[in-house]
C-alpha cells in the first residue's frame, strides 16, 4: 500500500496504520467502541460523516445567531453583549 504523495515521498503501511489509529481516537463514534481496531475504510467513512455533521451544526448555529442578532434591538444590553462576543 505504497501510494505516492506530493513531493514523491512514500508512507509505509505502519505510518498509515498509525495515522488511521490516531484519527480513530479523534472521532467520537469510533472512540467509544470496545473493539480497538476498525478498518481504515470505516474510520474514513465515520470521519467524513463526522465532518459533515460538524458543518451542519455550524450552519445551524450561524442561522440561529443571525436570527438572534436580527431580532435583538440595537440599544439593548443583549445586542451589545452579542456584538462584543462576536468581535
From TrEMBL:
Cellular location(s): Nucleus
PROSITE patterns for the chain: BHLH
Signal peptide: none
Gene3D superfamilies, A to Z: Helix-loop-helix DNA-binding domain
Superkingdom in the source lineage: Eukaryota
UniProt-listed CDD domains: bHLH_AtPRE_like
Limits of the BHLH domain: 1-54
InterPro entries for the chain: bHLH_dom, HLH_DNA-bd_sf, PRE
One Pfam family, short name: bHLH_ILI
Keywords assigned: Growth regulation, Nucleus, Transcription, Transcription regulation
SUPFAM superfamilies associated with the record: HLH, helix-loop-helix DNA-binding domain
Protein name: BHLH domain-containing protein
Organism, as annotated: Hibiscus sabdariffa
